[in-house]
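User: Structure tokens for this complex, please. No commentary.
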Amino acid sequence: MATNKMRLVVIGNGMAGIRTIEELLKMSADEFDITVFGAEPQPNYNRILLSPVLSGEMKFQDTVLNDWSWYEENHITLHTGKTVTKIDRVRCTVETEDGIITPYDRLLIATGSNPIMLPVPGIDLPGVVAYRSIADVNGMLGMAGMGSRAVVIGGGLLGLEAANGLAMRGMNVSVVHLCGWLMERQLDETGGGLLREALEKRGMKFFLSRQTEAILGETAVTGLRFKDGEEIPADLVVMSAGIRPNIALAKSAGIHCERGIVVSDTMQTFDPKIYSVGECVQHRSQTYGLVAPLFEQAKVAANHLARYGRMRYEGSAVSTKLKVTGIDLFSAGDFNPGPEDEELLLQDAARGVYKKLVLRDNKLRGAVMYGDTLGGPWYFRMMRDGTDVSAMREHLLFGESHIGDSGHGGVSAVANMPDSAEVCGCNGVCKGDIVNAIIEKKLFTLEEVRAHTKASASCGSCTGLVEAILANTLGADYSAKPSKKPVCACTEAAHQEVRQSIRERSLKTIPEVMRALEWKTPDGCHVCRPALNYYLLAAWPGEYLDDSRSRFINERVHANIQKDGTYSVIPRIWGGVTSPAALRSIAEIAERHQVPTVHITGGQRIGLYGITKENLPKMWAELVAAGFVSGHAYGKSLRTVKTCVGSEWCRFGTQDSTALGIRVEKMTWGSWMPHKFKIAVSGCPRNCAEATIKDFGVVCVDSGYEIHVGGNGGIKVRVTDFLCKVDNEAEVLEYCGAFMQLYREQANYQDRTAPWLERVGLPYIKRHIVDDAQGRAELYVRFLKSQQYSQDDPWKERVQGKDTHEYVALATI
Amino acid sequence: MNWIQVGKLEDIPRQGSRVVKTATGEIALFRSIDDQVFALNNRCPHKGGPLSQGIVHGKRVTCPLHSWVIDLESGSAIAPDTGCAHRHEVRIAHGVLFLEVEAGVCKD
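Assistant:
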């Protein structure tokens, strides 16, 4: 093709190389003429799924990720079965063994890795195979007869998957392993022992702490001899002693290599025209053999190839799962404790459950789980976030369900869940639906599963469970999403990066933020715009002009949209205290407007439902005239302050909780937040106002006021954490304002206080709100300052004519 | 074709929407950030949500009820969701909007 497009040549038709092309096509579809060389004769297939192909649970066709037509549709020139043998960096060409010479402007090396073949006599005999490609699998299947004997050398992840697959094909399988226990890179001795017992029950034999001296046989394999002289018979020997980055080609071209091809954070090799991704690279002294890091690398490489030039690959934290049906194990991080580490252990032999967590400085460093792995993604998340776990330490081993995830706490082993078990209650998605989508649609990430199945796409409380199913289905090569999660598909920037840039670079409008952080879309989307609008509002109170076009409908029209497109109207009832006159005016207004439903809300207010949009300003006018203001029941803002009658009436009441609640509500109403925010004040520890499931709760006691934070009701009930006790109402107000301000300034948009608190850890909150008196006072001042600009009743403004166009039709024809 | 004058471009806020009521239901007119105007029936193909109340971004609108994203040019839902909100032709002449009401078609 005679075009002036850039020529991109990709060496390696595997998951890393092709994923990079896919990412590149998403960003700039027409910029490159792409040529791909693959040594294998197949199109790109999912190497993770070799194990189920070997065991007979899947067919090869099901593992193909990009079929032939994909290459055609995207105008990619594909050479399969062609090994590139030379890179000429001066002329910028690559050459195959049969003499095809192709010029490049940019080169991507994705040659993957090679299996390590032990240097022992007999390694070349027929019947000795590696376990790396579909050709290897076919080789094994050709020899796998009922009752024949297979020996797998290497008791690591891949070796055990191979052993399991061969056993399922009816072979007698033995595993030889150099170390004293299986999967020593992923498991400690106890975990490895449990795994061995489970596999032995399936009929596998193990030779641990054994070194192979020779493979025996004249014309084909007949057996194996160990260093100690013992011999065992074998018809098939599978080499699975590890992998080594495939760097021969790069090395011969003079590209700097150590263990792998050395790349920078932009995935560039020492030759700036040449990039490299996947198992062949060495980044910050690390090489990776799992899929998730490779996908992160692909994203970064594509970003730089497309000349966006703003992403950096900063290494991956990886977690592992063994893909052997019916065996649940999970490991992540560094789980062999050093002298300064602490170890938490749980062992229940009868249930077959073993868990070990390694902590340092109150942060999780590693986790090994066997038998019950549901909490795996949760531990992994906390490891990446660096969450301070000291406050939940006593429950930590029992998993997330024991600190509040009551919605799904009952489910333990994902593998044992029936396909009909409902995972996502909001959208009615069962486990089987998710597994099918992952397999049929070839999904790898939580976002993809959400898009295709809607599982965990609504309230998100089943996210951990969906991640666990994803991990369980994809097996060994799954690891959770990268720690840096972009706000949405419009940008690579994460929430905290956006907040930081707004402050440090004094960005004052949404277009300014989008320009400065190189948004990929002209005006964002429904996910990022409301977040940016909130961040700017929180950063520049009184200065930033609220962008109503970036508000979700409820906050734009100050009413809550219902399923039929009508709205609800909920006036504020301060502290839940009302009067006959106030009730009478609400009753009369409801009657005049023929309100279909009048409902007492859970927040001690009265909701009027089924109001058409045109009628909202009329109804508000009457409510405002009767002395009401908006209850903000529709916003990411302070909702209600629930109270009990306290010492004024109750024979148990210790303080005037009602009056305190009203003071708190008068101070906090109207404030915009990352998510909705609920407060309650209870007059005694009987806690009738349910203060311990609110974002901020006050429980009055004889000697003062207990302050509790980070609770919520709903699907995922979370009881508050006790923050501290204070002596008087003035202090309650100060702590309340300071806590709300810390949350307003630091949480991600759409995070309620509970997930925010769990991410940063309770000790962090205590340091800022309880220990640091100066910092608390400053937060409180900033809260009060921002409140000066947010306590104008939005209903009154609209009665007076603001945003009229929102409430009337353009025309009637 | 039967073009009906329904208002002026400036009546619709940028990145916003206004509704035209007709005997057969509501039609939502959307104005993108670059001042293009699109018209769709004001019903999301998913559960009938009022698209006019959604956030407009690029040439798309997100339904306020369950966040389906609809392409304003074709009326089609963005994959993997499927479905279509019927679209109508709009013309802008000297800042005045004309709407073709009859041709409520799906364009894929």
